[in-house]
Amino acid sequence: MKRKFKTGRLMLIVPLLCQAVNVFSQAPKQYLSQPLIKSIYTADPSVHVFNGKIYIYPSHDINAGIPENDNGDHFAMRDYHILSMNSIDGPVTDHGVALDIKDIPWAGRQLWAPDCAYNNGTYFLYFPVKDKKDVFHIGVATSKSPVGPFKAEPQPIKGSFSIDPAVFTDTDGQSYMYFGGIWGGQLQRWAGGKYNPNGSKTDLQKDNQPALNCKVVKLKANMKEFDGPVQDVIILDAAGKPLLGKDHNRRFFEGSWMHKYNGKYYFTYSTGDTHLLAYAIGDRPYGPFHYKGIFLKPVQGWTTHHSIVEFKGKWYLFYHDTQLSGKTHLRNVKVTPLYHQPDGSIAMIDPFKPTTTVKK
Ligand code: FUB
What we know:
This protein has 1 helix and 23 strands. It is mainly beta. It holds the Pfam family Glyco_hydro_43.
């Protein structure tokens, strides 16, 4: 038997339902974690534990007054500050300028996301910067201290190009550099093996072909030179096929990182224009890697760039958003715990905590 709703009853129920939906959908979001430092803008945190202490190697964002574009011209950084912490919840120390663009003989503009490695008594700071012809390469600078000051080599690393170096030292002591980034990172312009100044401003523009890959190369023991050929970091889908150019939710964009967990190699990266952090797992540093999923939902801001580090037996994700400024190019670094689940997957992280605050 059909029950009839009386119009009067409907008129009472519908506004109540609308109010309930409004209350929950309009609830303000809370950030999962807070900026680690507020006195300067910082982004792209590459983090390492040296001598039992946490060192953060971030970009130092500044307001250069350059309008935002797909090329990333608004990211016009000029120096690096290194941060350190004795514990994850403890105070953060800013160690001041560790390297200035004016002290890099070959540099033109835009000091982007750096990384650091240690070998045999020396710390090596790796940095991408455009040369005087506006082409990104990767340089290296050295110091006896993890916080610098660092002295840059007179030339970029031979054979280097594009951006976002991430140096991973395996348990056998061999170091590898992962690097590359499309769009403003210029990786697409190197697709033919040498730089094409007239190449695409974004990607390969070939949606049904394999996407551009991140690069990986061994480092020599001196940590200043590539050892052997630069290779592609291939990411395979569940059918064993390389991810395609049109697959913007899964393909590599920039900001790679490598960590080893339970004997497996976890290649993690940003999907850029879809604003996700994704991961793929392999059996060796060169891959191939099998795409597994995303582990960080979009943050506030256009970019997100991360590192994953173990400290005192627990794992952490360092990342950035724009909580302090609300502006794309003025970012702040953050940290949150990261969990590997028993099946080896990484538990999803939401950079916001939903609340059920009633809208007034
Ligand atoms: O900070 C400049 C660039 O923005 C980095 O190199 C990219 O990874 C993105 O975070």
